[in-house]
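Task: sequence design from structure.
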């Protein structure tokens, strides 16, 4: 099944290994020299994972509000995206913002996220549960910056 999301066609990626292959192929297709990999949330996990598996391809890693794994993600979370996407969208918001974040910012984010097909969101949640990069953190030799907020839901992961 193909769908359109963010201007890209194709099935969503739902596995950490698939993301590594995707980034390797993208870097090769674009003929990128070693690059700085900046990622937010699961994107930070992807950056860490890729840097640990392709160290010659990454000059530096910047992980924003991220974690080396997402052990809190469960099959129940994936099932919720299949069963009740509206509830899944709503349940996502409280973990993403500081208490002082203006409601208008949260509403804007929610509206943007709802433009993403639920199938893509479900695939992202499934992919989160497939990452386990903590044991490879020591393999990252490039400069690494980890940024997190005091009210971050995943602050413990960012600290690791």
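Answer:
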């Amino acid at each position: 099944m193909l769908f359109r999301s963010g201007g890209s066609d194709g099935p969503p990626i739902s596995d950490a290994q698939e993301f590594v292959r995707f980034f390797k192929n993208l870097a090769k297709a674009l003929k990128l020299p070693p690059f700085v990999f900046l990622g937010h949330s699961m994107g930070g996990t992807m950056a860490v994972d890729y840097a640990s598996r392709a160290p010659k391809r990454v000059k530096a890693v910047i992980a924003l509000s991220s974690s080396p794994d997402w052990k809190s993600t469960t099959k129940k979370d994936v099932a919720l995206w299949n069963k009740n996407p509206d509830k899944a969208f709503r349940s996502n918001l409280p973990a993403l913002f500081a208490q002082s974040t203006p409601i208008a910012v949260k509403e804007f984010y929610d509206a943007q996220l709802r433009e993403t097909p639920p199938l893509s969101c479900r695939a992202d949640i499934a992919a989160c549960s497939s990452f386990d990069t903590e044991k490879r953190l020591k393999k990252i030799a490039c400069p690494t910056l980890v940024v997190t907020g005091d009210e971050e839901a995943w602050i413990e992961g960012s600290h690791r």
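The chain has seven helices and five strands.
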